[in-house]
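Reply to dn_fold:

You asked what the input looked like. This is it:
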Amino acid sequence: MITTIDSQYLRSSGRNIELPFHLLMKTDGFTSELVCTQILRIIPGKRLVCAGEWDKKPVIVKMFLSSRGAGRHYDREIKGVTALKNAGIKTPALLFQGNLLQDGTPLLVFERIIPAHNPQKALLKAKTDEKRCELLKQITVVIAEQHETGLKQKDLHLGNLLLSGNDIYTIDGDTVDTVQVGTPMPKAISLNNLGLFLAQLNPEFDHLFSAVFQTYAEKRLWPPDSGFFNQLLKEVKSQRKNRKKKYLNKIFRECTAFVCNKSWNNFMVCERNSYYGEIKRLVANPDPIISSSKLLKDGRSSTVALAEVDGKRIVIKRYNIKNFIHALKRCARNTRAWSSWRNAHRLVSMGIPTAKPIAFLEKRWGPFRSTSYYLSEYIDGTDLYRLITSDRSRKINIEALSIKFGEILKLLDDACMSHGDFKATNFIVADSRMFIIDIEGMREHIFKWSLRRALKRDCARFMRNWKDMPEVARVFHREMVHNVKFIESFTKKSNHG
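and this is what came back:
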């Protein structure tokens, strides 16, 4: 049975809205009915975006639920969509604008683009740099067209675009700045906005930026000027810094992506998409699951278990409190599970492969922390040391492994981060990819001299893995120097360990 609901139900239900449901809408003296079948985005009590059907057409409906800002966001959405349409920029057609029949809550109904693809997923699926660059150029042309007509998306990212065949649609009119509509956007503002877009991409794509910017400049009819490109790179760096700061604040609170439960005795954050079934029971009480699971490590400082939860293999790492003195030392500091959770998200945001973070939990007594737990997906692979020293090592392509290691080292250098324990067993090779694990000791460095000293220590530790394997050491040494130039000074002294 499909229930007809009102905005009061939508506001009070938080994220627990039962589907499907009916909406009765009114505009210009007539009423109509819409069925919502899928929730695409929800900000509890403020905004709801659903997919559904209206007048036998597939549609997207946006409801503005906030008692304060609903009218303002409704008007801005209409203004932004209208400006995009008038400028000749593809955007889903606005089919209906009006209110809910019961209480006048404003809502908009848009054409649903079918088929539609997420550009972020398309970029990750692209197999070659040529295909990635072509997709980014297509998107950049749309951004250039917006800027040339005086429009700017204040929240410009891949999620505000849709791919459908050869077409790219701009969505979310609420974020479209129309102040300069009709007048081409000044260069400084244009570069700032383009930098905001490119900052969303992982650093592994940075080498494509030159070609992408050339396409943008040609579309804007800008003269060749390397100064513009250098300014763009500065904007990307600045925007990435701001974006990372906002994101790392978000991972410790309740939001669209995460569930957060906080009490006097516990503090827990879990990825929302994973917070169901057995995972909910696991984060409520991890110890019984650890006891009944396969132990990968059972030490005084930490216990690591491999569990199967909801059909997935999960690694649970418990950071133990060894004794009363240890408890006193640790109680006022961030727990190692907290650090692992933060560092994992740092790595993910920078495109550095690591085990996907699922949740972390701290046992507390008010502000004082005790035992903590970190949950991540299990990487089904082989650690680098075992791979190279195994009986099948002759079949292993050491050169290819060294290149993957060098790429990780370069990304860490670019991100101003060190690991703290470059044992070869902390690098897992799976499905032709190399992942870095045991990340609780990672540090982000403000000063270059501090970063260089820490990375040199990391690399010295890594080279000790191969002290009895000079040929392997030579290959990895060459890749280190290729990716991080200052490493050579230490490697010459150490002569590979």
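The chain has four domains: 3-111, 119-247, 258-377, 382-494.
Hope that clears it up.
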